[in-house]
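## tool: complex_structure
## caller: assistant
## args:
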Amino acid sequence: MSETLLETRNLSVAYGPIRALNGVSIAVARGETVAVVGANGAGKTTLMKALSALLPAQAGEIAFKGRAVRGLGPHDLARAGLLHVSEGRGTLGTLSVEENLRIAYDVRPTPRAFGEATDEVFARFPRLAERRRQRASSMSGGEQQMLALARAMMNPPELLLIDEPSLGLSPLLVKEAFRVLHEFRARGTTMLVVEQNVRSALRLADRGYVLRQGEVVMTGAAAELLADQGLLNRYLGTRNLEGGNHA
Amino acid sequence: MPAGAEPAAPVLEVSELSKQFDGLRAVDGVSFTVLPGEILGIIGPNGAGKTVLINLVSGFYPATSGRVRLLGEDLSGLALHQIGRRGIARTFQNIRLFKRMTVLENVLVSDQRHARRPIRAFFAFGRQRAEIEKARRFIELMGLTARANQLAGTLPYGEARRLEIARALATEPALLLLDEPAAGMNEEETAELIADVRKARKLVMAVVLIEHDMSLIQALSDRVIAMDYGKVMAEGLPAAVLADPEVQRAYLGEEGDP
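## result:
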């Protein structure tokens, strides 16, 4: 087993009296892609926010690259190589598409030139090239989601936390978004992915954790979780809807 | 009463509607009608102008040119709240609720009479039992009875979406506009949403639905319009529009992989 890049031990997070995470222990090895799946309200987004220090932990430990992250802020973690693509368009609305990409590029030094990185983004999402001088807030919801993903492409981090990459995207772009993630994986980027589309998430991942009411109720190889129809029905709200699944 | 209110007349009539933002023509000469009893689905690539179209119809911002008629009445130049009172209600892509109010309060404040008599509503003197009963019926219809006294901000995602629909229905609109109601929902929640929209349609004259989830579009829409670059690219029965080669290329992508 290779180096553990990210680890939590008995992590608990609460919003006032409501306990959102209860003793969650997960680990992500370098180079691995891990999916966190669960119904809405299970605590997936809370976990992602706690991991990037956007929410304080009530109890438990988080370690990134072998060091406890207690006391570090989101910006410290970003500099250390953790990138959180948050749910629902984490873009800088008053800046243009190009400026958003520039900031993503400038966070950490990279061997690639800025133009080379943007060329790759624009080839992947031609719509962003059309909108390059437009303010992010003036774009449609789906276009902003593309931009959020594109910011990760500018400068692949050591650990990518990605929350609902397909939210609000057209069927065509859902496929494109997952293609981008599969490429990240092929290049060895370590990823922790939260996604409502359970099947797409587990097809991408090496391993998965199933969250239910703030607790890990199951973990295993992604392929095994994917094959367990009973599990999918019980915890994840998937059904065998005939025909409808284009993603 | 509007002249065109007899049964066969369209609920909504959009003609040559356009919206220009600086250099961008977000909606470009769009025309369509929605007939009584219909659910019209609107699909199209991200940035095609779907939400802008809904914003024009609901009066969120004024059109650059073209007309919107509701039950024969021209809505051009009316303010947002005036359009609301004439019978258009909507939900949003990003859920918008009063998070620190209860589910019941959220539905109560959406009742139009409170908007007309805000001070009376504020002191709750006029809050008759009948109004609360009415609000409870919409809450029950959307399956939220057990949550009625819970703060809206604590609802799980799928239920927050249903509360948005209950709020829209409480204005007793002629036309209900739903903007990506299934976004972020899992398959089970989407299946429940389909049932909810079927219940909702019985309370309104017509529904317009923007959605990227094709299972929902196919299950609910009587007709579908596909947009691209601000224009209507295809229109017709759901199966025909989804099979359209242009729609496949620009929107659905090839079958299979990831």
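## assistant note: Chain A touches chain B at residues 18, 39-41, 87-88, 127, 131, 134, 138-143, 145-146, 164, 167-176, 178-179, 182, 196, 198, 200, 203-204, 236-239, 241, 243-246 (CB under 8 Å). DSSP finds ten helices and eleven strands in chain A. Handing back to user.
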